[in-house]
Amino acid sequence: MLSCLVRSPVPMDEDNAQAPTRQLRNLKFVNNVIANVLSIVLNLFLIAVIQTQAKKQLRHYRKVLLLSTIVDLMLASLGLVLQPIYFAPNGIFIILIDGIIRPLPQPWTTVAVMLPLFVMYLLLTIVPVSFIYRYMLICKNTEPSSRVFVCLIGAAIGVSAGYTSVWTFHLWPSSSASATTNNFSKYLDNEHWYLPDGGIPPFSAAVYVSLGIGMAFWGSVGVCHVTISL
């Protein structure tokens, strides 16, 4: 999953010669608004269908159907409001907000971009929840209790929060990291990123090859493998 998170819309070199233009980012903004609004409308419609039109034989699956739909709705809503940008020029992982709400001062930029990252992890970790629920229904001929279902969701949330906390720890702004952050600001120091007041948008950055970031990446790969296998 993170392979898509660290891919820049346009390849960027150290001198920002190929930085995405403002026109390209505006096009991306419009595209994201249309896609996320459509996703929100369709997921709300799906929730209504599940709640009112589900046939009798599907009533036992209503919980897992609602779970995945609600998480999709959360991701679309956060994407519409925040539209975080993730890219990694020269091994430096940089994130910032480029959505309806922008810009936010630190540390709120870091908090905001961690929210959709957490939900994206959750979208993967709830797949085993659905698998276990269906396994118990079909193979064991028993419907998991609400307590079991909540515990499964809690485990998925815990794993997602664990991965997200690693990113948060390495990207959290601090006074000790100010000099390093200033060095990273060169990747945004051009006319394509300047705010109306001429400043650089707030962002968070970390060395992508650090141990913690590497562990989060390979842990994500492992979660993806498990999800695909299910």
UniProtKB/TrEMBL annotation:
Organism of derivation: Panagrellus redivivus (Microworm)
Residues passing through the membrane, by range: 33-52, 64-88, 108-136, 148-169, 205-228
Keywords assigned by UniProt, alphabetized: Membrane, Transmembrane, Transmembrane helix
Protein name per Swiss-Prot or TrEMBL: G protein-coupled receptor
Superkingdom of source: Eukaryota
PANTHER family recorded: 7-TRANSMEMBRANE DOMAIN RECEPTOR C.ELEGANS (PTHR22943), SEVEN TM RECEPTOR (PTHR22943:SF248)
Pfam families: 7TM_GPCR_Str (PF10326)
